[in-house]
Amino acid sequence: MSDKLRHVEAALDNMCQGLCMFDDEARLLVCNRRYREIFDLAEDEVALGMSQSDLCAALIERGAYPPGTSVETVIEHTRAALRRNDGIPILRALADGRMLSVQYRRLDGGGWVSTFEDVTEHRRTEARAAHLAGHDALTDLVNARTLRHAPHRLLGAFDRDRPVLAAFQLDILRFKAINDTYGHAAGDEVLRMVADRLRQATRSDDVVARLGGDEFAILRRVENDVAAMSFAEHLRLTLSRSFDLGADRVEVGACVGVALREGIVGDVEPLLREADLALRCAKSEDRGEVRVFDVAMADSAQMRRDLELELRQALVRSEFELHYQPLVEIDTKRIVAAEALIRWRHPERGLVPPATFIPLAEEVGLIVPIGDWVVRQACADATRWPDHIVVAVNVSSLQMRRKGFAELVLRTLSVTGLPPERLELELTESALLEDDDTTLRNLAGLREAGVRFAIDDFGTGYASLSYLRRFPIDKIKIDRSFVTDAETSADALAIIRAVAGLGTSLGMTTVVEGVETEQQLDLARGEGVDQVQGYLISRPVPEDGFSSLVSKDPG
Predict the structure, then answer these.
(1) The overall pTM is greater than 0.85
(2) Each residue's pLDDT tens digit, 43-94
(3) Architecture of domain 136-293
(4) Which residues lie below 8 Å from residue 103, measured CB to CB, with a gap of 6+?
């Protein structure tokens, strides 16, 4: 054998593809080592000069092709590919589950060459990638994108027995508490168990999806709206059973929003939006509920969107203003502080109460820029008051968790010239509960500069006394509900007395909010409270009105 032929043979035997070549009479001219390896053929089982039909018969006898495959079938596939002569590979399945990519090329003068590539792993990788693209990695449920392209059998096919397409959206209750208490690994395990329960509760033709976080969705054909509600209640009860986390059992529960369409559905997106609106209404009940979408929910959602847009414009258009409610020292009866309370003077709605727009601002993240504006305006206003009056500003947990918040406050004090000790930041207990590193750094930086801190609405949240030890608190504001109830409830009176005593022991100022009568003022005085705030003293008033109050102040 010449060197040239040896080189050709070596090249053929080292190809990663199997190769065989046939002449114009379909006799085998060339067959390389990789071809024999793919079909597990011994060298003496393949003889040059044998016909294609004999080679195919040998492969079928060995069991290479799936049962029922005939020599004629294989040869016809070859002829069809050669007739096309486009070089496009065809896929051929083997009996052992492997997949081959086979490419045919005609040769000048007759005959052809075939190449065989084992693409089994490649196909499996593609299938796995396609699966991951359409499924949630944690629960293996379909994801939101796949849900929105639900199977045609649910959307386009009319089912006489189940003519209604129902969308169910679920939100897991108390899930954040599980993450906070047991850690995110435990939270992930609960989500996997939720997914398992949803699989068990549904039919094989339902579409069950995880939308993200602790929200799930189901598409299902039902007989009528009664059947849809029955299934929704079944889902709620299914997820209300406790979950086993090793040594612990946890309770969650679920809210469910339901939306319905009868007949053929071309686009599932509007149905999912309606189910989401129903879920929002169910969640607003603050307990496990099932709600079905109605038009009023859409109207409410549109009003909310309009309000959000107007709220974003309000800051740019300078539509916010601050009113101030004085805090009076009980012993001296003089005004010692003022709480800054934001108001929105809408050009068409008039004065919008904070209860209407503050929750929305917190939800959409606008509370941060609005809160920054309040800090700047309150500090600027306070510079016009007597030096002994402190301005109190409510600060949200979102502001406290933001990097640079302390720097913004200190820069504002520097620009306005307000001494740091005349600024008091009122924090909620929930803000202190989320004592992440950024919050702690903001607290430390402001405290070091001389800014004061108060806990607002004390006793209505987590009410952990550890806050008073762990954080730099100067003032405790006792929620208005206690003074309202104190005249008829011994427990409420005892709480006021206990907090006042605690404040004295720890060197903290105590304030009772919501004082509206002389009797309530006398009660606060009798229990040793330092300061009072409420309508008996004054309602919140604009800055010029507060300056008038200060000018008449006996102190």
Answers:
(1) no
(2) 888 899 999 999 999 899 888 999 989 999 999 988 998 888 887 888 889 9
(3) 2-Layer Sandwich (3.30)
(4) 87, 88, 89, 90, 114, 115, 117
